[in-house]
Specification:
The protein is mostly helical. Helices cover about 45% and strands about 0% of the residues. The chain is elongated.
């Protein structure tokens, strides 16, 4: 067989057996998205990076006098974010 004869290969998904359909109906099974479904719906980007999680926050250690405490670090971070927001709004 030459390459020309093999180009039109297709796949036909067989029908699901009746007992499987009945079980899936009873339990309310929903099929996961397939490749074609993923192409039709845009992938939703989650903005999880903007969400502050306390369990993922860095641990603040003050070893010497003059080191920032956790509260001072939080205030400094908020001040910096406000400055960045005001700069982005000005542009």
């Amino acid at each position: 067989m030459s390459y020309r004869n093999n180009r039109n290969v297709t796949y036909v998904k067989p029908e699901e057996p009746k007992f499987l359909r009945e079980i899936k109906e009873r339990i309310g099974y929903q099929a996961p998205p397939d490749v074609n479904t993923k192409r039709t719906y845009p992938i939703e980007s989650s903005d999880d990076a903007d969400i502050e999680r306390t369990d993922e926050a860095p641990t603040v250690v003050s070893l010497k006098p003059g080191d920032l405490t956790a509260e001072e670090a939080k205030k400094a971070r908020l001040r910096k974010e406000e400055e960045e927001d005001s700069n982005s709004k000005a542009n």
